[in-house]
Amino acid sequence: MRILITGANGQLGRALHNALQGEGYAVTGVDRDTIDITDPGAVRATFEDTRPELVIHCAALTAVDYCAEHPDEALAVNGFGTQTVALACQAHDAAMLYVSTNEVFDGASRRPYREYDSPHPINPYGYSKWVGEQVVRDLVKRHYIVRTSWLFSHGGRNFVQSILGLAAQGKPLRVVTNEIGSPTYNDDLVAAILRLLPTGMYGLYHLVNAGHTSRYAFARHVLELAGYAAVPVEPIALAEYPRASRPPEYAALQNTAAARLGIVLRPWQDAVAAFLDAERATG
């Protein structure tokens, strides 16, 4: 199968590219230095060159605070850029996997969101990704929409790396107690996607490590496993943490649909332990 990955230089796109190549797929990766997904002509030319049978669309503006400050740009890239890619998939009869986010929900629930709970984004990033979901659903007959949450990876800029970096520098830590989500290890998400693709069971999926936690408890767990248990962490409320974007307070995801196919990600605590073991092994 010929696979095109957009956003191939990002933490997820890069890992998917390597894993799919290792499985024997013919993979082409593109990123913003080689294609502007908001340019229909550039997207059409890329499709003509690569003739993909499947497109994994990872390209996105994911800096949520930047998106809050530049909502039109977020919508142009995450919403209408996705529409451009989806239309090219339609024209070439290619399947599409679109990577989305828990931030399409408003955080008003008090149980983990299932796949077909109604989205209600409350910030520009979440709204732009929800627009992307809708255009994929409307334009591409054979599609997967994969929502994930609080992704952490090797060599990426993410919450876990930030916490460890600050602890190593001896800097004070202040972490929010009332933002709840499902931490997800990039490697586990990649493995789950690789299991999903051959099923042909198109639809909407929540692929996250099992369980959920607060940002504060997540940080404490990471620090304890990494040998920084003595580092003090000040618990604060979301309202005390100044930022441009308003995240949903409770946006844990429940893997219901993929679990029916036997695709289950391990608990987030085990994933953090595996992540840290891998960091030590390569460090």
Task: Give a verbal description of the structure.
The protein is of the alpha/beta class. It has a domain of 197 residues: Rossmann fold. The protein is built from 9 helices and 12 strands. Strands 2-1-3-4-5-10 form a 6-stranded parallel β-sheet, sandwiched between helices. Helix 5 links the parallel strand 4 and strand 5. Helix 2 packs parallel to helix 4 and helix 4 packs parallel to helix 5. 44% of the residues are buried. The mean pLDDT is 96.
What layout of secondary structure does this protein have?
Layout: E1 2-6, H1 11-22, E2 26-30, H2 40-50, E3 54-57, H3 64-69, H4 71-92, E4 95-101, H5 124-139, E5 143-148, E6 151-152, H6 159-168, E7 173-176, E8 180-181, E9 184-185, H7 186-196, E10 203-206, E11 213-214, H8 215-225, E12 233-236, H9 268-282
Parallel strand pairs: 1-2, 1-3, 3-4, 4-5, 5-10, 6-9, 7-12
Antiparallel strand pairs: 8-11
Helix pairs in contact: 1-7, 2-4, 4-5
What string, H for helix and E for strand, traces the elements in order? EHEHEHHEHEEHEEEHEEHEH
Describe the strand arrangement of the main beta sheet, using strand numbers. 2-1-3-4-5-10
Q: In this structure, how is the largest beta sheet organized? A: 6 strands, parallel
Q: What is the percent of helical residues?
A: 40-55%
**Structural class determined from secondary elements:** alpha/beta
CATH architecture of the domain at 2-157 and 184-209 and 252-266: 3-Layer(aba) Sandwich
Head-to-tail CA distance between termini: 35 Å
Number of helices: 9
On the 0 to 100 scale, the average pLDDT is 96
